[in-house]
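User: My notes are a mess, but here's the protein and flavin mononucleotide's SMILES. Can you give me a structure?
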Amino acid sequence: MPAKSATARTVAKTITPRKSKPPASKGSVMVGGKARYHEPAPTGIDLESFRKVVISRRSVRKFTNKPIPKAVLDDCLDMAMLAPCSSGLQPWEFYVVKSADKKARLVKACMSQIAAKTAQELIVCVARTDRIDDFSKKMLREWPMPDVPMVVRRYYQLIPYAYKPGPLNSFALMKKAAFTVGGLLGPVPRGPYTASEVKLWAAKSTALACENLVLALRANGFDSCMMEGFDELRVSKLLGLESGAFPIMVVAAGERADDGVFWPQLRFDRKLFLHEV
Ligand SMILES: Cc1cc2nc3c(=O)[nH]c(=O)nc-3n(C[C@H](O)[C@H](O)[C@H](O)COP(=O)(O)O)c2cc1C
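Assistant: No problem, the inputs look usable. Here's the predicted complex:
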């Protein structure tokens, strides 16, 4: 386990308890003579407000000097962490960079982009591949029902092996060979096996959390710019990240300046992207 950096400790200290709690257990329902967990789908959600949030989110590259209230940012971060995540393993971390010195270094590492320079908050979004073992165990310890179903227990006992590439990808290559042969007989998992595939695995879920974060900011009247234009090595050093933790995005956030959106949004013809098969 990498040692926690000073920044990580600062964030952990200052973040207030969750406002947006994950839905708690709602009760049970009988299905086919068996009691099943029941969480009803909420109704009455204002679709037009949701659409407004999605449509009005733009990459904002210039911010005013209005601060984002701490409670608002904390709530947005909590909503970020409600994003779906592969195997429920939450492979993300968010570093809210507060120290003036670290902020200045981070702006530089972001190639001094205007969005970074004018942002009220800079949040480094980190994907982690080094907590799979720990979090699989944690999942079983903190399972949100009185009994952990056997299938769940087996799954989280297996997962750490499934995602372990081994030294120089040795386990990964063995698994790949075995599953390639197995795959001749029927469907098999085709990854993630190698270290880079596991990194991609963590980055996918972390990017979903980033999207939740920017939408939550928008819903609160603030804006953001996702940035991957940064020096990964410098950002990792700045945060004291060790191997197994990768900054995948820096989110610049604040209030949109009048000239904060640089040009109208362009999306190509939907026919290029949508297929019915
Ligand atoms: C993964 C990712 C990385 C990005 N990196 C940068 C960046 O470094 N600098 C920047 O100005 N915009 C960056 N953007 C913003 C995109 O340029 C922007 O989303 C795109 O042009 C579409 O504009 P819109 O977000 O306003 O719809 C990034 C967006 C994503 C999703």
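The chain has one domain: 6-12+52-193+218-262.
User: Great, I'll file this with my notes.
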